[in-house]
Amino acid sequence: MNRSGFYAIEGVDGCGKSGMVGFLVDHLRSFGLEGIATREPGGTPQGEQLRSLILSGQDDAWDPHSELLLMTAARIEHVRRVITPALERGHFIVSDRYAGSTIAYQGAGRGMSEDFIRTLHAQVVGDVWPDLTIILDLDAEIGLARSRSRLSASSVDEGRFETLDLEFHRRIRQSFLDQAARDPARHIVVDAFGTPDEVRARVAAALDAWAARSTSSHPST
């Protein structure tokens, strides 16, 4: 089965995305595939600089439109310098967040038009979307508590969105579920409640089932 391609891991803060990215990279490499892990915002020197601006400080540091444009600027560099070259080499990409997060956070969270976000993406990024988005679904209250605890134990200043209230994060979760419902061929939703081993097993099984379906619907000639 061909598992090369572009994968994104999405979900509310604290759902376990970062650890799952590493697991998924190892899982794909077990099939003899070559690829890399990356993240948004970030993935490039330019994107990492923008990440520090977007995720740090108080929530009122940026107008929502400015926040959207900064996210999009990081994505332009990420796609141009990392994602597209890797895919052209036939490698896989596993990204910790992508445009689905922009639709969830700046769209559902901030109340900006999803149509506007998608139009902006089409104009400046192009038709570059993951082959598969894996949504780690977790109750927003549990995820937020996990994320705040992790940030308080670290010296990393990336807690700007964690300062927002629970209702904001509940809108984020619902947006991810809505995105998956609208495009089930390119999304799988995995229950992220449980031990890391349990969640990894669910992801591996769901990914393998998706790959089998994709292969059967596009048989080689």
From TrEMBL:
GO terms for cellular component: cytosol. ATP binds at G11, V12, D13, G14, C15, G16, K17, S18. It catalyses: dTMP + ATP = dTDP + ADP. One of its GO terms (biological process) is dUDP biosynthetic process. The keyword DNA damage does not apply. The keyword ATP-binding applies. This is Thymidylate kinase. The gene is tmk.
